[in-house]
Request: fold
Amino acid sequence: MKSIPRNLLGCALAIAGCLTVSDTRAQVQKTDKPIGVKPAQVGPPAPPRQAPKVQRPKRGPAPNTWFKETRLDLGTFIEGETAVGTFRFTNPHEETHRLSNIAPNCQCAKAKLVVGDRSYVIENDPTPHTIYRVEGEDEKTDRVKVKHIAVAPGEEGYVEIHLSLKGIKGSKEAHIAMRTTDKKLPMTTVSATARGVTFFRVVPPDINLNKMTWDEKRDFSFEISSDIRADFEVTQVEPTVDALKVTKKEKIDRNGRTVWKIEGTYGPDANVRSGGGLLKVHTDVKDPKNRRGKVKDVRVIAVVEGPLTVRPGSFLPLGRVKRAKGVTKVVEFEPNGDFDLQFKNVEITNLSVDKKWVTLGTSKEGKILKLELNIKPGAPRRLIRGDIKVELNHPAVKEKSLQFNGFVR
Reply:
């Protein structure tokens, strides 16, 4: 058999390869739809699809590994009492940690701490939030100032919050914040809530008599009851000023509860400066602070005009007096009412210069008395001062004292 020349064999192989590629292209052209290719979209392109939002869980406060309870409702107390709450804690770690910067949020809250057999109090003296370790029975004197409180591994203790309800009616909340060296709980807070209620209810709460004159008498009345105790006795109503008088006290049964009605008067001859007075209502309700029983103070308010008005007042500032001209000052005395006010006598005492340089004169315009003080020209250059004694015919104000001073230049 004759061998095929190499050049003919290469041509045959090339022709076969071309036929194979042509068959493959023909098969691709006969396919109706290209594999893996979507048909062209007609119209505007669709908006890009947004990735769905992932709802991440909200993180709450870190669990308190030291305190089992951080909030306490201490209940209801009588106004003026002190509510006490206790928060127990344990150091949950295997190393010692320190508590510091222990800070109550208001003056109404006091903080005390006990760790093991050691006691601490928090004071604002000499600086706010000062920690003292108590080493005796008297926490005010037997104590030592410290910077922090050490708590050993697994050691237990408690924080006491003392919440004063003095003057508190309704709910009151206080909290104590503190820092720790625990990196998992660098700061923690405990809080307590208490409610203050009044033992006695007074209607009206204050007796306001408004403006009145010194010789006037005003009547007043008020009622006192209790939401806590249905029945009680008023043993005494004690006025604290002479112008207050109690004229009647009556016990009333109103829907099964006791109501006491107290009547009285204020004036005449009420003190102008007192602004009224207090009535101390003593009862038979037991009080550990008072053997005589609970006492309710009722305030009587009044603005009392005195028998007369002195203008500009009982002190006359002369200021700088020019030696060549001198100076004149006038004091007016006006009675509050229809009284015919008159001078009985006026005189200067304790004068710092010769009396020839100072004179007094009196006059009257309508019901107003006028007193003139004259510093004559030529008075010596020096401090000039003195007292003026004024005698009047008023039955309530028989005498008034005035003072004056200035400097002659």
User: Anything to note?
Assistant: Confidence is low (pLDDT under 50) at residues 11-37. The CA atoms of residues 169 and 196 lie 5 Å apart. The helical segments are 6-30.
